[in-house]
Design a protein that fits this description.
Oligomer: single chain
Radius of gyration: 17 Å
Bound molecules: zinc ion
Number of strands: 0
InterPro entries: DUF2227_metal-bd
Strand content: under 5%
Helix content: 55-70%
Number of helices: 6
Keywords: Membrane, Transmembrane, Transmembrane helix
Structural class: mainly alpha
Pfam families: DUF2227 (PF09988)
Shape: flat
């Protein structure tokens, strides 16, 4: 598997390419999806993607850099690390992102409820953009892991 710096670089490069593509679609209005895109949504998407790249990596299943980046809050991910053995379900393209997003959703929902914020007051387009950004970041990680493993087997 690539080391954490490589993962961060690959993910950032993919994001830049993706943002250019999405911006182009929005600017030229060349796809039906263009009507759902605006600068605000692109920004939310990109920030969620970057946050996931640095803090919500599927490598939260080990004592990895993304796990350590949580600092004193890393206990929030301790159950995840214990339940998932490395590169098991956390690196499954469906179960991995789903369980990480669910784990985060539980944490965020608890914080919002404690802060007295009504969950229904959050626009659904915001939630879609955040989720899409996070899931895509994790998928890029999983694909990178697979590609690098296959290349190592060939060479
Ligand atoms: Zn990994």
């Amino acid at each position: 598997m690539p080391e954490v710096k490589t993962h961060d670089r690959i993910n950032t490069a993919v994001l830049l390419a993706l943002m250019s593509g999405l911006y182009y679609i929005m600017w030229k209005e060349i796809a039906p999806v263009a009507e759902y895109l605006d600068i605000y949504m692109l920004l939310v998407f990109a920030l969620a993607y970057l946050f996931a790249t640095f803090y919500l990596s599927p490598d939260l299943d080990i004592n990895s850099k993304p796990y350590k980046r949580w600092g004193i809050l890393k206990f929030l991910w301790w159950p995840y690390k214990v339940i998932f053995k490395h590169r098991g379900f956390s690196h499954n393209p469906i179960i991995g992102p789903l369980t990480i997003v669910l784990n985060l959703a539980i944490i965020v929902a608890a914080l919002l409820l404690l802060g007295g914020i009504d969950l229904h007051s959050i626009p659904s387009s915001f939630i879609v953009a955040v989720t899409a950004g996070m899931v895509l970041s994790m998928e890029v990680h999983i694909i990178s892991d697979n590609v690098v493993s296959k290349m190592k087997r060939i060479f």
